[in-house]
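$ ./design --mode recover --in tokens.txt
reading tokens...
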């Protein structure tokens, strides 16, 4: 069965909607060598956006864009190894050039090309001569290649928040910044999703990446765009949904891009010809069931005061320091509130960054309301 909605991976082509302003801005930055830092909560569409910009610039032979995903990186060695390999691979037009390229630009490594199953795809392997890889040499790599090949390079680093896993994250940032700030032919696009941590490292005066480039917070996509897309995807597959119910899908998940697609898919599956309110409710139930195991685990990691805070928040409390709230929700002293907020932010349960505090994950909010606190939906 060919399902009409896409989620859980990068979306491209017809499934990528809107983001016109962001696309244009990033494209201009990439073309003019301006560094960019892009932040949003998980699954709002950062990777898809950057990939879309990359594909729109594919015809430019004088501009090479490297895309490096740090999702599996936990140590400095892994970071340097991945960075070196990806920059070499993505700035060579064919794998035959990899070995030469490594020899020309990295003194400390011996290259090998391996061919792996199942499709005998070429992979570059680096054996390091000395145990301590020189970070300066590695972070210098894109600029050295850009100069030699007389091209411009943009290095995009996805899941940049994983730098936090390194044994000394600040030292790593210092090394990167000190090298990259002198680059003239290479620019950088750093993006990721731990909003409070990334905001901190990009905007604190004392941090190495302070004022490194354009800081962008990705916004949600407006309901008008979603409405049109949802209606069209139903029609394309011989089903129907009213504007009202399409908009209901978007509002139930608070316009969260991945969940709009995921809920629309569930509703589509629950629908024979035309979407009814029952099918929509059924779709929501299915979505909550799908997420239930993960959410149960999340809840186990919360303390009882943190849960009490969430319960109060769901009940509409916004003034947490009043004596009445503190006592009726068992929140302890008012100094406790600061700690609770910090913990909930660190656990990526809530976001207090904007004027309006909110749950990071709108489906978690639905689930904890209905299934855990057993309250009626907001
Ligand atoms: N521009 C978009 N148009 C349609 N769906 C989108 C868009 N951006 C994101 N999505 C939805 O969100 C999901 C996550 O997108 P992704 O780019 O992986 O987000 P992030 O990198 O911020 O975690 C996609 O699988 C898709 O369902
Ligand atoms: Mg991503």
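writing sequence...
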């Amino acid at each position: 069965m060919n399902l009409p909605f896409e989620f859980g991976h990068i979306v491209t082509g017809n499934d990528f909607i809107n983001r016109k302003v962001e696309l244009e801005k990033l494209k201009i930055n990439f073309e003019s060598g301006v560094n960019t830092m892009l932040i949003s909560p998980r699954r709002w569409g950062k990777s898809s956006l950057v990939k879309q910009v990359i594909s729109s610039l594919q015809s430019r032979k004088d501009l090479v864009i490297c895309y490096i995903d740090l999702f599996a990186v936990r140590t400095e060695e892994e970071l340097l190894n991945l960075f070196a390999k990806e920059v070499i691979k993505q700035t060579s037009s064919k794998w035959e050039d990899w070995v030469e390229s490594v020899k020309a630009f990295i003194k400390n490594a011996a290259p090998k090309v391996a061919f792996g199953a199942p499709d005998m795809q070429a992979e570059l392997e680096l054996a390091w001569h000395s145990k301590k890889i020189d970070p300066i040499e590695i972070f210098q790599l894109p600029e050295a290649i850009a100069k030699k090949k007389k091209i411009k390079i943009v290095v995009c680093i996805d899941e940049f928040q994983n730098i936090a896993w390194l044994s000394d994250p600040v030292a790593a940032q210092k090394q990167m910044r000190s090298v990259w700030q002198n680059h003239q032919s290479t620019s950088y696009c750093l993006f990721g999703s731990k909003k409070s941590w990334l905001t901190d490292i990009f905007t604190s005066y004392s941090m190495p990446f302070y004022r490194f480039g354009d800081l962008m917070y990705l916004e949600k996509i407006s309901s008008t765009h979603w409405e049109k897309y949802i209606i069209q995807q139903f029609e394309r597959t011989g089903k129907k949904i009213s504007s009202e119910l399409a908009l209901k899908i978007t509002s139930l998940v608070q316009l969260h891009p991945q969940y709009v697609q995921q809920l629309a898919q569930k509703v589509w599956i629950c629908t024979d010809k035309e979407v009814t309110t029952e099918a929509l409710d059924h779709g929501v139930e299915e979505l909550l069931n799908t997420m239930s195991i993960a959410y149960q685990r999340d809840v186990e990691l919360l303390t009882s005061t943190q849960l009490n805070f969430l319960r109060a928040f769901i009940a509409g409390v916004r003034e947490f320091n009043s004596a009445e709230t503190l006592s009726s929700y068992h929140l302890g002293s008012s100094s406790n509130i600061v700690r609770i907020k910090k913990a909930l932010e660190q656990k990526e349960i809530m976001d207090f960054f904007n004027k309006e505090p909110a749950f990071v994950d709108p489906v978690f909010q639905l689930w904890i309301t209905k299934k855990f606190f057993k309250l009626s939906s907001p």
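exit 0
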